[in-house]
Design brief:
The chain is of the alpha+beta class and about 325 residues long. The protein contains 5 helices and 14 strands. The strands form 3 sheets. Strands 1, 2, 5, 6, 7, 8, 9, 10 and 14 form a 9-stranded antiparallel sheet that branches. It has a 3-stranded antiparallel sheet with strand order 11-12-13, with no helix packed on it. A hairpin with a 2-residue loop joins strand 9 and strand 10. The radius of gyration is 36 Å and the shape is extended. Keywords: Cuticle, Signal. This is Cuticle protein.
């Protein structure tokens, strides 16, 4: 009886740990709300690792076996095919996602992957709550963020490392250059107040400044110069073609257009409808054996605590 009870407990645990894939379309708002109120998960967490597999190339005798995996014997990392597959392993993770809407403005969605996870929920009143987590690229630390938006605005709580801003320290050579520039600017400003000609200082230095030079009018101010009227300018331009709902317009004439008229589809009508879907799928990451989580690689590829099962063998 004890063995039977133990087996039953394990069976129930396995059954509840693997959610059933769901695809429900054309739901009433009330039916959709039932799914939105009980999503597969409400807190973000990284997808758990389920297996660590060896990389088996297409020309390996083991490729046709079940251990070859779904990569068809070719593996790429950072845009290059891995030539030394014995130095790498394939970590397989149980990723998942869900998404649902009730047709009246409420929605919920979420996903779990090996490197990030997120959940978000919006109610019909417009309030939004959500949270996400991810591993920082440089330190591999687990960053957690919780946010919400309501009538008071957007709010956020997180454990992101805070950056303390420090004032810029001015080097001595930069300081001297700044002071020289400010002095030159002040001298130029004082000279401009005396002589507003912007070229005064420049011309004076080159000996070109002569206040007795007669004024030379611009080309548009010379006698006899005029600008063409808008109508006259339009006649001199090359005729352009325009396409409208009635046809092609060119040179004052309308010709039948070769393009069909745009037909606007009517807006959908009827009562609001919702949907909901949720599913799990395997995803993998190629890692070097020396970087495998859980320590050095020993026979059987020992892994860390989030591993469900290890299906690889050591050769």
């Amino acid at each position: 009886m004890l063995k039977f009870g133990t087996f039953l407990t394990i069976a129930v645990a396995i059954t509840t740990a693997v959610p059933t894939n769901i695809l429900e379309l054309d739901l009433t708002p009330e039916e959709a709300q039932k799914y939105l109120n009980s999503p597969p998960f409400t807190e973000p967490k990284l997808a758990g690792r389920t297996a660590v597999l060896p990389l088996i190339k297409f020309n390996d005798p083991r490729f046709r076996s079940a251990e070859a995996g779904p990569t068809l014997g070719h593996y790429w990392k950072n845009g290059h095919e891995i030539e030394n597959p014995d130095d790498y392993v394939e970590e397989v993770y149980d990723a998942s996602q869900f998404h649902g809407q009730d047709g009246l403005g409420a929605y919920a969605y979420g996903y779990e992957t090996p490197e990030s996870s997120k959940v978000e929920n919006k109610v019909r009143s417009g309030d939004v709550t959500g949270s996400y987590t991810y591993r920082a690229g440089n330190t591999n630390d687990l960053i957690k963020v919780r946010y919400w938006a309501d009538s008071q605005g957007f709010h956020q709580e997180d454990n992101i490392p805070k950056v303390v801003l420090k004032p810029v320290e001015e080097a001595e050579d930069v300081r001297q250059a700044r002071l020289a520039h400010e002095k030159a600017w002040q001298e130029a400003a004082a000279a401009a107040r005396v002589q507003p000609d912007p070229q005064y200082v420049y011309k004076q230095l080159r000996g070109e400044y002569n206040p007795q030079v007669e004024y030379q009018p611009a080309a548009s101010e010379q006698q006899g110069a005029f600008l063409a009227a808008p109508g006259q300018a339009a006649q001199a331009r090359e005729a352009k073609a325009y396409y409208g709902s009635q046809g092609q317009y060119q040179g004052g004439q309308v010709y039948p257009t070769p393009y069909p008229e745009r037909i606007e589809e009517p807006e959908p009508t009827g009562p609001p409808r919702g949907f909901f879907y949720a599913f799990n799928y395997p995803t993998s990451i190629l890692v070097a054996k020396k970087d495998l989580q859980g320590g050095a690689v020993n026979p059987g590829y020992p892994v860390d605590q989030d591993t469900v099962s290890v299906q690889a063998k050591h050769y």
